[in-house]
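Notes taken during the Thursday session

The instructor put the following on the board and asked us to keep it in front of us for the whole hour. The protein is S-methylmethionine:homocysteine methyltransferase. We were told not to look anything up and to reason only from what is written here. First, the residues (339 in total):
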Amino acid sequence: MAKRKAFLKIVKENGPLILDGAFGTELERHGCNIHDELWSSKMLIENPEIIKKVHISYLAAGADIIESSGYQATVAGFKAHGYGTEEALDLVKLSVRLAVQARNEFLEAKANDALTLRGITLGEQLPDGSVRYFSEGALPKPLVAASVGPYGAFLADGSEYRGDYGVQTEYLEVFHIPRIALFCEENPDVLACETVPCYDEAIAIARTLCDPLTTKGIPAWISFSCKDEHHISSGETIIKCAEMIDKVRQVTGIGINCTAPEYVESLIKDIRSVTNKSIAVYPNLGEIYDGETKTWSGGQQSFIDYVDIWRKAGANIIGGCCRTNPDIIREVAKQIHVK
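Then, after some discussion, the predicted structure tokens were revealed:
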């Protein structure tokens, strides 16, 4: 209860807060090959230090909240890759530990007036010898969110964007309970249960979050992938989902992620029409792919132009999902902090 109230107080007094951006594409930009069923969680095995570097790049850009690399991390997934049970359990928890370590390293670097950290430029030295940091977020101590991907992320078959799992709600509860419990053992500031494509999975997650033995009182939001201005990926309305979440005291907010940016304003308004809970939005960049030239175009400027629209519509947390990056999050932070 105390953790939930503390998180709500932070959001209310400091919002909109800046969330980080895409993780997988940043790992690829740093040379990582994540074409695997484990996706970015593969780096928990192969290169945990690069994970911390990506976290730091978003903190340096102004993120108030960074998400862990656990989106696709499951015990079953790691065991399928040949790891024993104890190793798999620790790899799932490692995703949160690395984010916490990155946050702490970042704060220590700033306290020591460091200009760089793990190869990331944090600021510039002024003529008087002081350091002006590029990142001056709303929070003196950024928050760590444990990324909790949907069942479809474990399946790695694209069903996280459709929700056609073919399983009962109870089965989804059994999937989520032990995994969320593992994340909570590392005491993140909040749980980001995200890219949820269907109402049944939202129900399963909400039930899981109601168990204090599982969550240890850690607050959470449930975020949906949406296919248009009013519907989540499986076809149910975002209003139906928001009405359900509004009744679940343990869930502090509702979100929209992995969604085209042009849909977000209407989705925020639908959510706000039925709940006063906090709203987190972190849509995709929204680029257009040209099949002839095999290139992406647009996206960045239009994404930035949307930020103030989302804020005015009622968003309390704003960040990015697929194909966003630290440069874009830095621009988002500038948009928010000048208001």
